[in-house]
Write a structure and sequence with these properties.
Elements lengths: L2 H10 L21 E5 L2 H4 L2 H9 L18 H15 L14 H12 L8 H32 L8 H18 L4 H11 L8 H11 L4 H19 L2 H5 L6 E4 L6 H14 L11 E6 L14 E2 L3 H20 L10 E5 L14 H4 L5 H15 L3 H5 L6 E3 L2 E4 L2 E6 L12 H14 L6 E6 L7 H21 L9 E7 L7 H11 L3 E6 L5 H13 L4 E3 L23 E3 L4 H11 L8 E6 L5 H13 L14 E3 L10 H14 L4 E5 L2 H13 L7 E6 L6 H4 L2 H8 L8 E8 L5 H15 L11 H19 L12 H23 L6 H8 L8 E3 L2 E3 L12 E6 L7 E6 L19
Parallel strand pairs: 1-3, 1-5, 2-3, 4-5, 9-10, 9-11, 11-12, 12-13, 14-15, 14-16, 16-17, 17-18
Antiparallel strand pairs: 6-7, 7-8, 8-10, 18-21, 19-20, 21-22
Amino acid sequence: MDEQLDAALAQLVIRDRLRRRGLRFSRRSGGALVLQLEGPESTVRPWPEQYHSRYRGVLPVNSPGGVPAENAGEKELAAALLAVAQGCGYDGRPAYRLPLVFPRFAAAFAALYVWEPVPGHTEAEQVDELAHMVRQAIAKERRHVLTELRRRFQGLPRPENAPQQVNWLVSLGGWAVDALRFPHYRTVRWYRRKRFGALELRTSREVFRELHKRRGTAPADKRLLLVEALLADIDAHYGLFRRLNRARRPVILLPDVDTAPDRRAVRDTLLTAYDGRSRALRVYPVVVATSAPGAAPSPQVPNEPVPASGLRHAVPALFHARETAAEERRLGRDVPLPGRLLQVTTGPGRAAGHPGAPTAARRYGRLGPVTVAGLVLAVLAGLGRGGSLLLGPDGPESCGEGLQVHGKDCVGVSDGTGVFMPDAEGMAEVSARIEAENRRIAGTKHATVALLIPLESSNAAVRKQILSEVQGAHLAQLRANAADGAKPPVRLVLANPGRSYRLWRHTVDRLVATEPGLRVIAGFNLSLRATRDAMSHVTNRLGIPVVASVVTAGDFANPEGRGRDEDPYPGLVRAVPTSRDQARALLDFDPELAGAHTALVADTRPNDSYNASLWTTFTEARGGRRQGGGAGVQDMTFASPGREKAGVTPNEFEDFARNICQSNARVVYFAGRAFHLELFVKKLAGTYCTGKKSYTVITGSDATTLGQRLDRDERALLRGDAGVGKPSVSVRYTAPAHPDAWDVEARRWREKAARHGSKPRREDLPRYLAEPQDAMKALRADIAAAGNIGPVQLDDGRTITTHDVVLTAAEGLAKAAAISKTEVPPRERIKQDFAHLNLASRVQGASGWICLTNAGNPYDKATFVVRLDPASTRLTFEGVGWPEGRVPQRNCAVPQMPDD
């Protein structure tokens, strides 16, 4: 066949590993294509067998004879896909190379087509049996690698008396790998996080249950699942080292798709996967189909056929055309998206496998560029000639400009140039806007405010929460830097202390070293031991003012009624009330809670001040002490293994739910994190209790992510079914903010005034309602004018709260600058003037007035009572509670020595 076609395919599969290639299929280049050769029958029909004959042992390539030629059934077509996997895998592996394995494909194939349910077994038993077979299939597929390692190890030269020892060591090593690495774990994790990621499955058993359900789906859906798993296995095989070492890519041959409907079905399923869940892979196979001219058209938008000589230009041109069309479609224009099938026309010519062709094994070497470079470096190091210079100093891996990888965390300080969680929707966009604003004010005297919060998570709900907080901080920056804003302008930087603040010291050191204009650190949003250590270090050792966010535990506040020299956190101010104040506000809003029959479920995990503070607060709210004395049943405690870890808590919650059912309690206080709250409410709703129609669970502000954690089926579970003895479960908690609060409260005030015979005007609205209502309107306007900062969600209150936290920092800067008559005030001046942010200098936040005491606490700060009703898709705002038991009586005046 045409030598130009052979040369183009050589580049796509990286046949010549030490040569630079111009053609590629990858995420960076635009994805993948399917090449379809069309031409005279005498040239096209024999081509797949000739290509396989020539390059087997050089490339991972399947035998074209393994794909059925006739119109076969569903299972036969699945077996054909299995033949493709085996052909590119162990059976078709190149010499000297570990085989490509397909554990994800093996799992799907075993679940959909190998396993058969035993008649009479329950669904739970069937899921157990399916799980066992799937694990066996995964382990068997992965053992292909161990088999090849054993063969290589035994082929090494060794003394004559060593074979038994070598065999024993290899067997022991294989057993250890099988026993310790849990070969099915990574495969099941792929199904849980990626393939079934939208379902938010929590456990491996849920994955197996979902595979069990998929057995009843349409054949096309099963085929798509198999193909997506196959592509994911190929992508996983080509890790960073293999990509850098330019390992040769696999080839999938699909001959005669015009005469074989099932081969065409495989081709079309690949095209569907490329535009679906498999569109963002790093490595793709090279798929080549053959057909008579025009006999097997593309199911997508067709492209103009190109000759083999034009492939070098046609492939990148097609990717560019798809990118342009996609951009047009994002702008709302009706533009067709070019398909991924590229027809390649060929003419009569000499076949690729003719007798005179040189043997592939003689032409193509075994070593890739990384291997060659490694050998060269090893020689240089052995000779002592500059090896250490070439290798360079050791240091952490970079994960962005100014950011470093430490364990599983990407930590450091970013002014927007380095992006945390770049794969999270909206993070790249809001980071770019922060960078642009920082660049805009770079030529003026400015003060740096750092947002110190964990900026990474694997949980989808927490990732959205992080985005909301970053957006809120940037919106406050824009408000402070507006044309009518007070000096100094704010430079905003993002500082990631790692998950659960575990790497706070590294990040704080970087922050101090790289930001000489640092004046305030804002954030601190988790009430943990590490957070407290970080806050103490920043305020006591470094003397940096802090504006705290949603750390609601009482030990993250300076006590009232004592000298400021005794403050545990000098220079700390808070924008959110403590758990105790929130509980007081809730009781003010609903006084009947004080005498209700209740239960209390509490997490006793050490070093989590949020849980401990809620436990103490809820105990006081029940009217008794932890030892008993209030209305209701005794406390039920559990010790979770971590903030996002279940351990045995589901089993404990099942016992708690049965005990609560037997009690008089219809209100349950829950002192724990949102992850465990989700587990608890599902157990409570799923436990039969014929004597009760509903439960109300009361908890703290960490529940703001609960609505995003629950899927449609779980919400249906919480709605209950009184007819079968399943009570409904709603969750009520005090949120730090709510977007509808001030409009609703203003309407209620007017309706109350109207009931008393008056006709209130806009100017009659109390200022504690009017000013936050205006601030909320201004925030919405700022969101509309901010440009692309990602999707903004206000319901969870995090955007509003963080906006007010950074706005408080900016107001403190402006106050200190005005008093000291300096462009950028010193830190000590800022700490002194924070206490003046009340009365006429109050912070007019979108979450309400922030009136700071001398200790830096918000006095009588509005608290928002919300309810997560499973029958609604939005949080229900119930009303505003006030810690002092009444609305503000004067314009943000703080009385002398308020109660602590």
